Amino acid sequence: MSYLKTKIECLKDFLNLGKSKPCENEYHIKAAIIWIYKAQDVTKDGGVSRMYDLRRGWGASYPETTGYIIPTLFDYYHLSGDLESRGRAINLAKWESNVQMENGAIQAGTVNSNPKVPTIFNTGQVIFGWVRAYKETGDKKFYNSAEKASEWLVETQDEDGAWRKYSSSVALPGPNTYNTRTAWALLKAYSVISKEKYLVAARKNIDWAITQQLDNGWFKNNCLTDNDRPLLHTIAYAIRGILESGVVLNDNRYLELARIPADILISLQRNDGSLAGRFDSNWRPTVRWSCLTGDAQISIIWLRLFEIFGKEKYYLAGKRINNYLKSVQDIKTKNKNIYGGIKGSYPIYGDYGKYQYLNWAAKFFIDALILEERVSKKFSL
């Protein structure tokens, strides 16, 4: 493609606010998988590129999100029988072990970030990948990596259950409520390593996070950039961590506390199925753009609540937001760098991942559609 044609295509991508008619989930999942494969192939080092930026091109490999892309690829393998997906998942898990720091942690930022700083949240997210890879393959290398990372998380946790040290260098300093997802990762580790201290540390963090929750379900200290107006992305992290921990620990209190914000967000779903990208402490939307990653994550939460409680409102809300996400996925473009990708924001010039297609947005989009498929079949919907 000539330089001029490339510039014209990019300009179209900048200005295109149109939506596509949603197709079958399988079609959209496959397109997003193709984009994930592309994001891995362009890095040359084996990890998954953080994003494709319309202004600057592909970014470096991102250990944090590469880690939790691994379970998504295994899920796709089991859904489709695509052996390539399984092979890529295993190779990504090996790559994560190779970039793991000596103390067991995962660094902040992309692999080319210097200095390399150990980070709590990123470490937790890669545990998801190692545990799943171990369960799928039985390879002790993945068990050892997950154990080493989990030991570091337990050692660095404060007595009240929060993590105040080793926050991400690209986020507000801790404690961060969205680390409930790190607590959930420790429960994943416990499922294969069976060290009681992992279970204890996870529960301690969830109990601390609950102290940050207002009566209306909103969480304090819960954003990468603005704790007064947290992103839907980190709101979803916090809710999901509490929800899934409640399932693992059979703790109905956790489940009910997760339902409070999930129910409020249903009432805030917009006519097109989307949600606003940020909310203040009174659940007032503070931006007009939508955080597509957060939309997909909330879809997953609603569909999980449908599985648990059987309330139809959760299924309908999840399906609506999935249809919205399918409508804004790039599936008509001839640009292979964005085909099947999911933008950070919609419109693409929104403040979250501005002008970027994020690997974790594609990951959660795939997860949401696979879960919708599972729920639909399970309940004959």
From TrEMBL:
A Pfam family hit: SQHop_cyclase_C
Taxonomy of the source species: Bacteria, Candidatus Schekmaniibacteriota
GO biological process terms, semicolon-separated: carbohydrate metabolic process
Gene3D superfamilies: 1.50.10.20
Signal peptide segment: none
Domain of life from the UniProt record: Bacteria
Protein's name in the database: Squalene cyclase C-terminal domain-containing protein
Squalene cyclase C-terminal domain ranges (all copies): 132-239
Family matches, as InterPro entries: 6-hairpin_glycosidase_sf (IPR008928), SQ_cyclase_C (IPR032696)
